[in-house]
Write a structure and sequence with these properties.
alpha+beta, 4-stranded mixed sheet
Length: 333
Amino acid sequence: MNLKRKHHFVSQFYLRNWYDSNEKIIVWDGHKKISSKSESIGFQRDLYKLATLTNKQYELLDKYLEDWELKKTSIYKLSFKYILEAQSIFSNGFKFVNPKDLDTIDELNSIEKEFSTNIVEERLSRQESLFSQVLEKLTSKSINMLSLNDYSYLVHFIVFQYMKTPKKIKHLISITEESEVFREANFNNEQYKTFWLIFTQCFQERVYLSIFKQLYTIKIYSNTSNINFITSDDPCFNQRINENGFLIQLPISPKIMIELAPNTYDDDFTKTAVDYYSLSSDNANEVFLSDSFVTFDNIEEEQVIDLNQKIFSNRDRFIYAQQVDDISTLETV
């Protein structure tokens, strides 16, 4: 039985972009600085393990998904729907098995343990392998245009990283655990985490498709200053929190940052472009987005320092950097 207990909420392929010449990354908690490999940071043990929900909790989840129109998402229809059904079978104690058949019961218990621990983590890992390809192009600077396929993966990666950290899940728990409806459902901490993990994974798909259909602009900035970008254990956050739409600036290496924001064009122009790119989806690798929606530019030191300070303020616990000097401007904050 292979249980993947270290669940990485910051992708390792992403963190490796900050490796130094010794293939290590600087980790800073605001006090101490250490060097580490990517596999030893940005994870929480059993973060994506699925606890079994009671009937009342499942009914509440079902209502939430219905109210947010998330039962129509492909991830729910093709994945979580069957996961919840399988959990129901497991939670019934395998009543179809003869209790005298201990070998079979032990085997089923082993399958249930592997299923609940691995299934979400394995799905997230498969997604990461797709996202890593476009980030590798950007960090190697071997790209000066984004194909429709690249654009799709990049938007998906941003939303994916935005939703999956413990800080986000803890926030959702904190704003609902005082609700009478949730109190009546008697969630324990693991059941709360499972509820919001399923919800956010479905919601992630809806946000990604919404952003894609609105053709948010992507700006790719090269950092030409002497100060590197840092990152953190919650690197993707909305810098336009009090306004409509996302404005996300996410460093993907010490020298490259991507910005995702609503485009400034009128609805007719955007709809025409969306229709064109939708019709071109069969050739997504050969069709490139115009500079109306994807641009490449440089960024200056003052802007680098400003974004680093935002990343520092938004961290959960840790800052990650390529070298010690990269966090020197933060130590007086």
